[in-house]
Write a structure and sequence with these properties.
The longest helix is centred in the first third of the chain and has 15 residues, at about 1-15. The protein has a single domain (about 1-215), classed as Porin, CATH 2.40.160.20. The protein is mainly beta and about 220 residues long. A hairpin with an 8-residue loop joins strand 1 (about 50-60) and strand 2. The protein is globular and about 55 Å long. The protein has a 10-stranded antiparallel β-barrel with strand order 1-2-3-4-5-6-7-8-9-10. The protein has 2 helices and 10 strands, in the order ααββββββββββ.
């Protein structure tokens, strides 16, 4: 019941916050809007455990990639592997957005190892009636160290973005870009509540906040 109450509170909080619009009309803005952020510590969920939450992400005020609210979930599928997915919607683009990732633990924090290290490939795309289609792929490498309920983390990532006319067009125009970026954040866990804040530096500085529940 406590977990259900937390989930209901998260949904209510999301409904009370009116998100700004997002745009992915260029590869650079697609990289910010569609990137599947880590927004949590490096350690994957234990097998059979589930994490559900909402994410609020945005960039600089002058950026074409403005705030958008996303719903995300993760599930542990093995001792060192979990799967994640997210979804959101942009009323300006008349497009839905969705993504998936896989987090794989390379090293786990223990008495003999002070940090955890993981690798995380991801893919995100627009879904909808817009005449433009955008996608983003990326691979993160991150480290974290837990101090009780707090777990600061940092990492680097390589991403590639594509914006093109709708896939049904016979001769679509395509714009692509690729770049590297760095990010750092702090994850906090208390009982079934999980919160994280993250700052990312690529071609632009962007930020994100996440509130969720884990069971």
């Amino acid at each position: 019941m406590k977990t259900l109450s937390v989930a209901i509170a998260i949904v209510a909080l999301t409904a009370s916050l009116a998100p700004s619009h997002a745009s992915a009309q260029t590869p650079e803005s697609a990289a910010v809007v569609l990137r599947f952020r880590q927004l949590g510590d490096t350690v994957p969920l234990a097998r059979g455990h589930v994490d559900f939450g909402v994410q609020f992400a945005g960039g600089q005020p002058e950026s074409s990639a403005r705030n958008i609210t996303r719903f995300g979930a993760r599930v542990g599928v093995a001792d060192r592997v979990d799967l994640g997915a997210w979804g959101g919607y942009s009323s300006v683009m008349n497009d839905g957005m969705a993504g998936v990732d896989v987090k794989v633990a390379l090293v786990r924090q223990s008495a003999s190892m002070p940090i955890s290290i993981s690798v995380r490939p991801s893919f995100s795309t627009t879904l909808g009636a817009s005449d433009r289609w955008a996608a983003n792929t990326g691979v993160d490498l991150s480290i974290s160290r837990a101090y009780g309920r707090f777990a600061p983390y940092a990492g680097v990532a390589a991403t590639s973005s594509l914006v093109t006319e709708h896939l049904l067009n016979l001769d679509p125009e395509r714009d692509t870009t690729g770049h590297t970026l760095s990010f750092a954040g702090l994850n906090y866990t208390w009982r079934s509540l999980v919160a994280a804040v993250e700052v990312e530096k690529g071609t632009k500085v962007s930020y994100a906040f996440r509130l969720g529940t884990r069971f």
